[in-house]
Amino acid sequence: MMEQGKREPMFEMFLYESNQLIEQLEQTILDVERCGAMTLEQINQIFRVMHTIKGSSAMMMYNHISELTHYAEDLFHYLREHPSAIDDPTSLTDLVLSVSDAMKSELRKIDRGEETKDHFSELVADVKAYIHHLKEQGSGGKVAPSDAPRETGERQPQAESARPDRAEPGTTVYEAVLRFDEDCGMENIRCFTVVHNLKDNADIFGYEPEDIMTNHEGSSERIRRDGFRIEFSSPQGYDELIEFFAGSSYISKVDLTTVAAASETIEAEPQQGAKPSAEIKTPAPTPAMQAAQESIQSSQSHFLSVNVEKMDKLMDLVGELVISEAMVTEHPELQGLQLDQFLKAARQLRKITGELQDVVMSIRMVPLTATFQKMNRIVRDMSKKLNKDVALHIAGQETEVDKSIIEHLSDPLMHMIRNCVDHGLEAAEERAAAGKPAQGAVWLEARNAGGEVWITIRDDGRGLNKDNILAKAKANGLLHKAEEEYSEREIYSMIFLPGFSTKEAVTEYSGRGVGMDVANKNIQALGGTIHVESALGKGTSVVVKIPLTLAIIDGMTIKVGESRFTVPTGSIRESFRVNDEEIIRDPDGNEMLLIRGRCHQVLRLYERYALHTDVKALDRGVMLMVEYEDEAVCIFADELLGKQQVVVKSLPPILKKINGVSGCTLLGDGSISLILDISGLLQPAA
After folding, report:
1. In the predicted structure, residue 261 carries a pLDDT above the cut 70
2. Helix or strand run (H / E) with residue 297
3. What does the radius of gyration of the chain's CA atoms come to, in whole angstroms?
4. DSSP string for residues in 368-402
5. What span, in angstroms and rounded, lies between the C-alpha atoms of 337 and 324?
6. What is the pLDDT of residue 172?
7. Spatial distance between the Cα atoms of 434 and 440, rounded to a whole number of angstroms
């Protein structure tokens, strides 16, 4: 087992690929339960997942995981031959999810360097019992006592100097030459995995290079140059072996030839100096063989796994390039000069820089598919524990967002989905009394809206009761103005307050008043917003708006004295000029503007941040109305400098506690502009 603290590429690849396979496994088995039947394709898919994890975990010497997947693989091997044996998809789903949960738990411990289990005896017994049950069902209750534990000792493949003179009867001797995708990396480890998986259905005579586990760099270089040659005998046919190799990761081409069949091997010992003669028959290509070979080449999409830190570094460099381009083309010394050729070259540079920026941004974009599909498991588990029949409907999962955002989106969505199932949806008898279908519904939808992604989580449950929410907020001392002054949207937003919950009894999933509060804070940390809509007795809808990326934003640059500020354009409602006479004051002396029947606070940035400016009369400056959720404020600045895309930079630690400032950026003239955080501006100055 790998020493704790070391993070070698092979170890990282094992964790990454295993977790990806487990996600695929869960989604497949949940689809089986949802449809109430299992296709042969799904059986084969789960079999391959178990087979791959078994081989890789054995290679990494996590034998307890290898043993568990070994028996799970046995289960699906039986189902491949007896697909009609599945009489209860739900019980099969429960068992497979138990196996996946056990593997996920162990992988988390391995990732953290914690102590892991040495066996899964109870779970293995459950799998074996399920196999016995299927066999018993298929044979009318008569099953021979042949359920003795299969040999699970992992024999390490050894390269031998030569093939034996004769293969086992009924087998054929093959030679395969494997070639891998360019730049896939760790070719020697991938070859080891192929050999390890192949030995289940073949006797391996030898392979070249022989030192794949002792000479990592040298053997990988030889494999990249010459391919990996392996000689073996197997009872499987040509098509089956081609299918086996096609299912292995990163293999781009396989040359598989028949060396000899067992029936063709000469029985008598050859005379000295003579060589055994046998007619070597290479099967003519069949449509199935050609299709399998083509699938190896066509299905291997040319993807390259890259460390996220490298992508972050590339994004930073592109950001610096964008800033440098602006610093050159907008340099103050060039103002007023007639430089036609320079301007032409500058336009071309700006075009290329913009295209490069778009490409890098597209590389970082990841679909929401994996995040959304995880919610299927949450809904499934909750519906069983709460005894509610719930269907989750997903739409727009192909919508893409930045990798840095998607990593922090799962928890908020999980809290809101749980809230829908536990708190929003009624029990079966309550739904029947309301004339609703017995099965409750939850929708999870995503769509692009300009520079944002809108994610909607809604249910057809009981809805929110405004009176109950207000009463609860009043009892907890959370109201800061008269009850009649709160809008419907403000009342619904109270469910996000810390410690707030309308649930009377605390359950495993809700009632403590922390879930929605955490969800709201996490979404705000991503630069997003949440608002709630509800209809009593019909359901609740939560709309989450998040930016496509946190790295680059569209902003309006404003000037206050000698300082520059950038306002995200998504927060700007309008800009205008006013006179001092239009200002009204509230009882506390705060300046207000009456616009279309609503009063909005006036925020003078030079006062908020103690800046020196000669522009203090309102008619000499400009007013910018910005909004956050249902609130708006009018920002007074000297002038607008223009709209542009800006690269977001994090603030130094000493400035991170300033209300109303979320980051900074460099402008074309080299000056620094602070990026305003509108939600922070709406809070009182510290």
Report:
1. no
2. helix 287-299
3. 33
4. SHHHHHHHHHHHHHHHHHTT--EEEEEE-TT-EEE
5. 20
6. 87
7. 12
Residues 6+ apart with CB under 8 A from 471: none
For the ranges 237-246, 282-291, 371-380, 488-497, the maximum mean pLDDT occurs at: 371-380
Smallest Cα–Cα separation from 59: which of 98, 23, 18, 117? Answer: 18
Q: Which helix (H) or strand (E) holds 628?
A: strand 622-628
Of the CA atoms within 13 Å of residue 218, those in its CB half-sphere come to 8
SS percent in the chain: helix, strand, coil, step 5: 45, 20, 35
The residue whose two tokens read 């359920």 is 147
- Which among 30, 43, 4, 8 has a CA at the least distance from the CA of 97? 30
Q: What is the pLDDT of residues 131-160, one digit of tens each?
A: 988 888 765 544 444 444 444 444 444 444
CB of 375 within 8 A of CB of 409?
A: no
How many Å apart are CA 281 and CA 287, to the nearest integer?
18
Asked if the model's pLDDT at residue 552 lies above 80, the reply is no
Burial of 224 (C-beta count, 10 Å sphere; 0-12/13-18/19+)? middle
Q: Which residues fall within 8 angstroms of residue 232, CB to CB, at 6 or more apart? A: 173, 174, 176, 198, 202, 203, 204, 205
Q: Taking the mean position of all CA atoms in its chain, how far away is CA 80? A: 31
Strands 563-568 and 672-676: parallel
Centre a 10 Å sphere on the Cβ of residue 559 and count the other Cβ atoms it contains. Answer: 19
- Residue 267 in this model has a pLDDT that exceeds 60: no
Looking at the DSSP bridge assignments, the partners of residue 540 are 534
> What pLDDT digit, counting tens, does each position of 565-604 carry?
999 887 888 999 988 788 888 887 888 888 888 888 899 9
Angstrom distance (rounded) from CA 32 to CA 85 = 14
Q: Quote the DSSP letter at residue 423.
A: I
Residue labelled with tokens 């078994």: 54
Question: Any idea which residue has 């069983």 for tokens?
Answer: 384
Backbone angles phi, psi at 253, to 5 degrees: -155, 140
Q: What does the angle CA 568 – CA 571 – CA 572 come to, to the nearest 5 degrees? A: 95
Per-residue confidence band for 514, with pLDDT thresholds at 50, 70 and 90: low
Which residue in the block uniquely carries the two structure tokens 């941040």? 609
pTM, to two decimals = 0.66
Long-range CB contacts for residues 501-505, cutoff 8 Å, separation at least 24: 501/472, 502/423, 502/464, 502/465, 502/468, 502/469, 502/472, 503/422, 503/423
Beta-bridge mates of residue 541:
458, 533
In tens, the pLDDT along 203-230 reads 888 899 888 877 777 888 889 888 999 9
Q: Sheet of 203-208: strands edge to edge?
A: 203-208, 228-234, 172-180, 251-261
